[in-house]
Specification:
Its EC number is 5.1.3.9. With 226 residues, this protein is an alpha/beta fold. The chain has 10 helices and 8 strands. The chain is 43% helix and 15% strand. Helix 7 links the parallel strand 6 and strand 7.
Length: 226
């Protein structure tokens, strides 16, 4: 097992991202968020955008999973090889990219992209998948980590209110590659359930680093009580 991946075993990764147009959509703000979650016990960081990745890499000495959301196509998480190379060169130890079966904008296969990233940069690759078949395919294509990130976010999968723990469990028994539980993990007990289902590591984002959404949860509950 790669030593960097071993550092994440049965630990928490925190996704430090803000959406375009939000007050926190700023690389230095995300750098500070990353420092805060590192102090809280995060074992790794997931970050979006080249400037954010570079700023966090300089500030935080933890494994960094980087991605670049770009474009209007279905495949927009690090959609091309050029995006993936840029993410690695910005400082990501692990490049997260779309690991679904959908066509990639540059026409390359997932396997071709994974191989090129490893050969040209030495970075590891995390495949964000939405189904068991995609996860198996991503592992066969050479991905170092397979995530459930896109379960419920593709046209052919159903979005559950919480994490897709069934997919986590099925992937954990189907592949030898570490499985990353990610997506709609909103409570500590759900993170623990994901590990018990077989996840190597758990990524939590919104419930920790997105105050707009968290505030909305509380505001809605208060409104209902009122």
């Amino acid at each position: 097992m790669n030593p960097l991946v071993e550092q994440l075993r049965h630990r928490l990764v925190v996704s430090c991202q803000a959406y375009p147009g939000e007050p926190m959509r700023d690389p230095d703000t995300m750098r500070r968020v990353a420092l805060a979650v590192a102090r809280g016990g995060a074992a790794g960081i997931r970050a979006q955008g080249l400037a954010d990745i570079a700023a966090i890499r300089d500030a935080v000495d933890l494994p960094l999973i980087g991605l670049w959301k770009d474009g209007d196509d279905d495949v927009f998480i690090t959609p091309t090889l050029d995006h993936a190379l840029a993410v690695a060169r910005a400082g990501a130890h692990v490049v997260a990219l779309d690991g679904t079966a959908r066509p990639r904008p540059d026409g390359r296969t997932l396997g071709e992209t994974v191989a090129a990233v490893k050969e040209r940069t030495g970075a590891l690759v995390m495949a964000d998948c939405s189904t068991l078949e995609e996860g198996v395919g991503a592992a066969a294509a050479g991905a170092d980590l397979v995530g459930t990130t896109l379960a419920g976010y593709t046209a052919y999968t159903s979005k559950q209110p919480g994490p897709d723990l069934d997919l986590v469990a099925r992937l954990a028994t189907a592949i030898d590659v570490p499985v990353v539980a990610e997506g709609r993990i909103h409570r500590p007990e759900q993170a623990a359930q994901a590990l018990r289902a077989g996840a190597w590591t758990v990524v939590v984002g919104t419930a920790i680093t997105h105050p707009t959404t968290i505030t909305g949860w509380f505001a809605s509950a208060v409104a209902e009580a009122r």
